[in-house]
Amino acid sequence: MADMSWNLEQELEQGRAPAWPQGGHDVGVLKLLRLRDQMKQLLMEYSAAVRGGETTFLDQVVEEKHIQGVTEDLQTDKEEIEVSFWNKTLALQRIQLMAALRNKMKQDDKDSCLILETVNRIVLLSQAIIKYQQLAHEKKQKLIDIKRKRLSLKKDQRRKLQQIQTMKKKQKKEKGNKNLDEAKMLQNLEKERLMTTVIQNVFQNIIIGSGVNWAEDPSLKAIVLQLEKNVHLP
């Protein structure tokens, strides 16, 4: 394995990426350097002019804002060029690495066999990772569905409880009204019984006070016996 690593390093050394970008990257860097020098020169000239009283304070403020804006633009361009440079450098290094691996695998030796075995293992691991990611996504989706169903069941349960409570309150109110009606009916019945008792006593006193022998008259006897009944008894 150490020999394989040394061989790979040798092949990468032969096709190593340059430390600095070529072509368009050189133009971008040189442009930045020239602009930096121009900005330095411009700042020096304006500083000398301000010290010598050759410009007004307003002009100085305007120029400073302009210089600040240009400086910010240059800084942004510089960062974009650096990012682009490093991305292309990494891409080039990856290409060189793949080329070195392909060349090494063509040699059909022990190291190339190890490389091929490692690549196949990486492919299998990548496929397994993708599969488990899909399973994890499916499990996550099922969990979301279960949570939604639980939330829906909780809402239904809360609604049913509210309906039950409303029904109980209604039944309690109806029962209270029914008890009140029954109490009023019993009260009225008691009044009717009292009035009937008073009327019975009055009729009895009338019959007895008249001096009529009610025992010999069947009709009067039936009336007197009926009046003697207690209206409170069934």
UniProtKB/TrEMBL annotation:
GO molecular function: kinetochore binding
Signal peptide: none
Any one Gene Ontology cellular component term annotated for this protein: kinetochore
Locations listed in the record: Chromosome, Centromere, Kinetochore; Nucleus
Main location: nucleus
Family annotation (InterPro entries): CENP-H (IPR040034), CENP-H_C (IPR008426)
BP term (GO), one: kinetochore assembly
Cytoplasm is among the record's keywords: no
Nucleus as UniProt keyword: yes
One Pfam family this sequence matches: CENP-H
Residues of the Centromere protein H C-terminal domain: 31-228
Keyword field: Centromere, Chromosome, Kinetochore, Nucleus
Record family assignment: Belongs to the CENP-H/MCM16 family.
Designated name of the protein: Centromere protein H
Organism: Pipra filicauda
Gene assigned in the entry: CENPH
